[in-house]
Structures are given as C-alpha cells and as structure tokens.
Amino acid sequence: MPVYEYKCNKCKADFTYLKLRADDEPLCPGCKSADVTKKMSSFSCSGGGFSGGFGSGFGSGHGGGC
Ligand SMILES: [Zn+2]
After folding, report:
1. Which of 3, 7, 28, 44 has the most crowded Cβ, counting Cβ within 10 A?
2. 49 CA to centre of ligand 1 in angstroms
3. Which of 35, 24, 65 is nearest to 48 (CA)?
4. Distance CA 23, CA 63 (A)
5. What is the dihedral of CA 21, 37, 33, 43, to 10 degrees?
6. CA of 14 to the centre of ligand 1 (A)
7. What is the pLDDT of residues 20-30, one digit of tens each?
C-alpha cells in the first residue's frame, strides 16, 4: 500500500498520506498547506539502517520478512 510520510514545511507537522494516484498532491491536515516534503518511507520490516545501506545486500537473500 503506497503510504508515504510527509512533513509540512509550514507547521512542521508529520503526517502520512495514502497516495492513490501518481499525480496526487498531499495537503497538510493541519494547515492545509501544499508546501510539504516527502520523507523516505520507513519500512517496518527492514530492521533499521535502511537508509544507510540501500543497495548493499538488498534482495540478496538476507531476512526478507516482507
Ligand atoms: Zn501544516
């Protein structure tokens, strides 16, 4: 499910957004601003350190809980 994390640049609120279409633009649920930054999704099954080791051993047969 394409749920992405965003951070509002105006009120600094973190929120998640279910993106149904590729051209869907999320609005901050707090201040309704479109000035938001997409954050890297935190995969709950990655076991941490995902952003640092992207590509190193990804899909090479280790773990793979999902
Ligand atoms: Zn906001």
Report:
1. 28
2. 28
3. 65
4. 33
5. 60
6. 8
7. 888 888 999 99
Residues with Cβ within 8 Å of 2's Cβ and at least 6 positions away in sequence, in order, are 18, 19, 20
Q: What is the pLDDT of the chain when averaged over all its residues?
A: 77
Give residue 32 CA to ligand 1 midpoint distance, Å.
6
Q: Which two tokens stand for residue 49?
A: 């350190």
pLDDT tens digits, 22-57 = 888 899 999 999 999 999 765 555 555 455 555 555
- Distance from Cα 6 to the centre of ligand 1, integer Å: 10
Q: Provide the 8-state DSSP code for 45.
A: T
Ligand 1 centroid from CA 37, angstroms: 11
